């Protein structure tokens, strides 16, 4: 297995006879440590001294005449991977699956663990069942494992060169509410659902709560599709509230070892229905950022996001809601992790986002926070026209408008569709399926990072400056 390396301290726990003394020892080539602890309420828990990345070690717990030993234990970074079916989407289902699985054995220090699918009406101390126990990776083990999670771990190992532990706990078709504690849901005035697969906290109880004692480095999340049709309008509260609550709970559960603001990365929704006029996916993409359009932000600190709306898959045999390109998703997550979690300098991880908008009767000039690469488009931008300073929302009348020019950091779109009234708001890529594969009109200068979607109102934009002429 992998335990969390220094500066954090790994937590180990187990069961034993009440009041008994348990000796927990760590033995490696250059290191040994031992702790004595008393079994209380049937459970013992030890916080190891900090251990640098590497190994292998043996860890032994001894009580009276009984002992249990874990062998080949490494220390590195533990990343928790959660969400719904696109996180569960396994390595056999992605593009180039055979090739990707053929290199698994070259990464013996990237080790998977997978929680089995079980529900519970109450918070559990321990997992009901384990699907994949801690394993040295082989093709046959990893083929059932989350592709986004595994690829992220593999790419991070290539950068960090020390062990990575990956913990998958996800379930297809699930809304955020089932992964949230009742504490978190109260923050958003969520009405308790008492029955069925959407019963509040049903997977928090069984598939997250039992993991809280574990010291972790950070978490990855790919979910939101289910909330496009369920409590969609609450997601801008429920998702950030879940992140806050997980952070608090993992910090407390590990006795203060997991950081109280551990890094949290997530995938912004990809695509589903090509011709859809439904606002569900665009609204959730926006709500995934707490309605800022980008992360990290004031509400969602120490988070990072992989934009995925430019990675559609019209011929996916698993349905268009499950695109097979998880390599780019994982790669974009690693950029965010390197910048936010590991504080590596000069790692671009954010696509271009507007910082200033200037509008006239003829044009709207959108100036971005970085250099942009632009392809012409007649319909990716839309404007909302109004003579009054009332905000435009997704249900307002939006008119497609063409890109008419651009330079290093500014894109100019036409305002002519508004005729005698003024441009009151502008939005970008506000569709379920806004462009074809890696062919959105706006990217970073390197063409690697797509611009995230946005909806900006002249009257209420707090994140930048709107000038009218």
From TrEMBL:
One matching Pfam family: SASA
Keyword Hydrolase (UniProt): yes
Hydrolase as UniProt keyword: yes
Keywords: Hydrolase
Sialate O-acetylesterase domain mapped to chain residues: 77-271
Domain of life: Eukaryota
A biological process term (GO) from this entry: carbohydrate metabolic process
PANTHER family from the UniProt entry: SIALATE O-ACETYLESTERASE
Protein name, UniProt field: Sialate O-acetylesterase isoform X2
Lineage: Eukaryota, Metazoa, Chordata, Craniata, Vertebrata
Gene (UniProt): siae
């Amino acid at each position: 297995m992998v335990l969390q390396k220094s500066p954090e301290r790994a937590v180990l726990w187990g069961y034993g006879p009440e009041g008994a003394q348990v000796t927990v020892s760590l033995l490696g080539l250059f290191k040994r440590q031992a702790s004595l602890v008393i079994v209380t309420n049937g459970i013992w828990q030890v916080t190891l001294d900090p251990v640098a990345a590497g190994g292998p070690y043996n860890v032994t717990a001894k009580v009276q005449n009984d002992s249990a030993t874990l062998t080949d234990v490494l220390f590195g970074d533990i990343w928790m991977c959660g969400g719904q079916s696109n996180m569960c989407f396994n390595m056999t289902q992605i593009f180039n699956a055979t090739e990707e699985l053929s290199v698994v054995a070259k990464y013996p220090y990237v080790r998977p663990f997978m929680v089995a699918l079980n529900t519970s009406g109450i918070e559990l101390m321990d997992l009901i069942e384990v699907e994949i126990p801690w394993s040295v990776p082989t093709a046959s083990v990893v083929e059932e494992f989350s592709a986004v999670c595994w690829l992220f771990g593999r790419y991070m190992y290539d950068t960090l060169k020390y062990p990575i532990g990956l913990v998958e706990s996800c379930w297809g078709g699930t809304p955020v509410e089932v992964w949230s504690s009742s504490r978190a849901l109260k923050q958003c005035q969520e009405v308790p659902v008492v029955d069925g697969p959407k019963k509040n906290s049903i997977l928090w109880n069984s598939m997250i709560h039992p993991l809280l004692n574990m010291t972790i480095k950070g978490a990855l999340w790919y979910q939101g599709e289910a909330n496009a049709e369920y409590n969609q309008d609450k997601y801008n509260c429920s998702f950030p509230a879940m992140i806050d609550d997980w952070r608090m709970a993992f910090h407390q559960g590990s006795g203060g070892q997991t950081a109280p603001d551990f890094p949290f990365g997530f995938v912004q929704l990809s695509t589903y229905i090509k011709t859809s006029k439904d606002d569900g996916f665009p609204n959730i993409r926006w709500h995934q950022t707490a309605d800022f359009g980008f992360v990290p932000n004031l509400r969602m600190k120490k988070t990072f996001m992989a934009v995925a709306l430019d990675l559609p898959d019209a011929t996916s045999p698993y349905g268009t809601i499950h695109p097979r390109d998880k390599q780019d998703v994982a790669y974009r997550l690693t950029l965010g992790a390197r910048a936010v979690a590991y504080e590596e300098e000069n790692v671009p991880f954010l696509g271009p986002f507007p910082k200033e908008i200037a509008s006239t009767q003829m044009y709207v000039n959108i100036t971005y926070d970085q250099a942009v690469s632009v392809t012409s488009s007649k319909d990716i931008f839309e404007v909302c026209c109004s003579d009054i300073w009332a905000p435009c929302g997704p249900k307002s009348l939006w008119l497609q408008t063409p890109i008419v020019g651009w330079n290093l950091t500014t894109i100019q779109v036409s305002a002519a569709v508004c005729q005698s009234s003024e441009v009151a708001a502008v939005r970008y890529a506000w569709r379920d399926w806004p462009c074809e594969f890696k062919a959105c009109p706006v990217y970073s200068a390197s063409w690697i990072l797509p611009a995230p979607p946005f909806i900006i109102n002249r009257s209420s934009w707090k994140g930048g400056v709107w000038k009218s002429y």
